[in-house]
Amino acid sequence: MNIFQFLISVLAIIIGAYLLPGVEATLVGALVFAVILGIISLFIKPIVTLLTLPITIVTFGLFSLVINGFFILLGAKIVPDFAVSGFLTAVLFSITISLVQSIFNAMIKK
Q1: How far, rounded to the nearest angstrom, does the alpha carbon of residue 93 sit from its chain's CA centroid?
Q2: Please, which of 22, 59, 101, 102 could form a disulfide with 89 given CB 3.0 to 4.6 Å?
Q3: φ/ψ bin of 92: left (φ > 0), alpha (ψ from -120 to 50), beta (otherwise)
Q4: What is the tens place of the pLDDT at every residue in 41-92?
C-alpha cells in the first residue's frame, strides 16, 4: 500500500462517516482507523476468509459483507475517535468505503 492508497482510504472513511448517520469519526480517528483496518486486513482477514470459505461459497460471496462488517466493528472498538452504531451500519459503511475507494482509484488511473 502506497501513500496514495492510504490517503484514499482515509478520505473514503471520512466521506463514509459523513454520509452514514451511525458513523462518527474525527480526522485523527480516520487516520488511525485506516491503519488499524489495514492491519486487520493484512493479518486477520485471510485466516477468517479461509475458515468461512464454505459459507461464502454457499452465499455466493455475500457472507464477505458480514465479515467486513465485523472487521469494521472490531476497528471501531480499538480506535477511540471512531464509532459505529451497529452491525448494519458497519456493513453499509464497508460498502460505502469500497465504492468511494473504487471511484477514487478509477479517477487516479485515468
Answers
A1: 7
A2: 22
A3: alpha
A4: 999 999 999 999 999 999 999 999 999 999 999 999 999 999 999 999 999 9
Is pLDDT at 110 greater than 80 in this prediction?
no
End-to-end CA distance of the chain: 19
Nearest to 13 by CA among 87, 104, 77: 104
Report how far residue 41's alpha carbon sits from residue 47's, in angstroms, rounded to the nearest whole number.
10
- Virtual CA dihedral for 32, 98, 15, 25, nearest 10 degrees? -30
* Cβ–Cβ under 8 Å, residues 101 and 8: yes
pLDDT score of 108:
86
Pick the closest to residue 71 from 25, 110, 38, 28 (CA basis).
38
Taking the domains of the chain in order of start, what are their residue ranges? 3-104
Axis-axis angle for helices 63-78, 87-109 (nearest 10): 100
Query: For the whole model, what pTM was predicted?
Result: 0.92
